């Protein structure tokens, strides 16, 4: 029996130099069609300038005509903007490149009710800092365009460090577009491909920075720009700050900036540079490099490797007698144990950190220790104690002006309010966290915020709101590569499907969550999920149970 399919055409626009991405664009769409889209009644058709048939008239006009017949437009840029086509120049148009003209055509199509254009997405390939520090005319135009998107917020855009991230982001968009198709057809909502609900708060590690005043004026400029939400300009300033290659503070702060954006690969490279500079006779920077590399490994789920880095850092900090470094190393070791749900070990390290920080009047250390101890309290359902700790954290965050503390603390306090059935209070706290997190670019905090919004919607049986929020949370967590966050979101996604009597999908989500917890070595979460998995399996195998194709 023929399978009815709805076809959507996706156009990719790129200047030269992005052949790998164009190839991956087609391969990813083909793979997604075969593994998910077709069985859900959708097929995506990749399209680009190379598919445009020859004809009379301006060649760019023929490409533009093809774009006007597409449903989605993906723009990918790197370090080149492109040049005006000969036909563009002859036509006397305002466009400085063929890619710009294609983008403007897509915008006009999206604004027109007569055209099928539904979505426009821009993806930027990360540029080497040496190029960013001294951009030529081509890169300047790319940066100007990215800056405009950042300010205008016309369309969604993202920076990717590796082609695997490009692929992952594209699959995420494809999944969202399939879900949108199903909604329009009145089918039960589904979350991206990828019960009992636990905490949506994960541990927050402590960033290692030098306590010395910032000496490099470009670093000061970069951090001020980041605080204003001008992230493109901030990255350019950071790239200029590290141009000499011998400033460990600039490299470390650039790494922290990239880490906060969820760009772990580039952050790792910066931290490795700090470690190498520390190896030239500066053990303080070696300790800091170890610590921040440990944070990257922990976020990827490489917990044994993370603990090793933090222990190395702690050994050096003790040898140097750096009290703040000793406190932060204790916190980060505690955070790593908490990620594995080893609450006893986590509490031991965090309480020791808190005691040391209070003894040295180190407020930032006090705040991070309290924030993570609150996460332990929430896991243990000791909400009054968690609330008490978090109120102190928020007070300290205001005084310190720490961009990482405020959204994380507000999200954690919202978690407490949610568990106490104070949903309006939780939503108000989440809106505050969302505003601060979007401005600072704190992706991990944003993942938690959208995740908790999804839980609130689920509790109200608001299926559409839950689907949207959980999708956003999963997309951010997937981009960050944080297995503990992804696993937790998947558990709530299983509840989402169960509410719609889609137990096949609910079971698949739980099994994927169990895979992540297995990687983390989290036996507690694994044991907690098994009864839920058994219940879903029984429902799927029950006689007469609806089966998904």
- Which CATH top level class of the largest domain fits? Mainly Alpha
* Number of E-type strands: 5
Estimated share of beta-strand residues: 5-15%
Largest sheet: 5 strands, parallel
Mean pLDDT: 88
Radius of gyration, Cα only, in angstroms? 25 Å
CATH homologous superfamily label of the largest domain = Tetratricopeptide repeat domain
Main β-sheet, spatial strand arrangement: 2-1-3-4-5
CATH topology of the largest domain: Serine Threonine Protein Phosphatase 5, Tetratricopeptide repeat
Helix share, percent: 55-70%
Query: How many domains comprise the coordinates?
Result: 2
Topology as a string of helices (H) and strands (E): EHEHEHHEHHEHHHHHHHHHHHHHHHHHH
* End-to-end separation: 14 Å
Explain what this protein looks like in three dimensions.
This protein is mainly alpha-helical. It folds into two domains: 179 residues, Rossmann fold (3-Layer(aba) Sandwich), CATH 3.40.50; 325 residues, Serine Threonine Protein Phosphatase 5, Tetratricopeptide repeat (Alpha Horseshoe), CATH 1.25.40. The protein contains 24 helices and five strands. The chain has a five-stranded parallel beta sheet with strand order 2-1-3-4-5, sandwiched between helices.
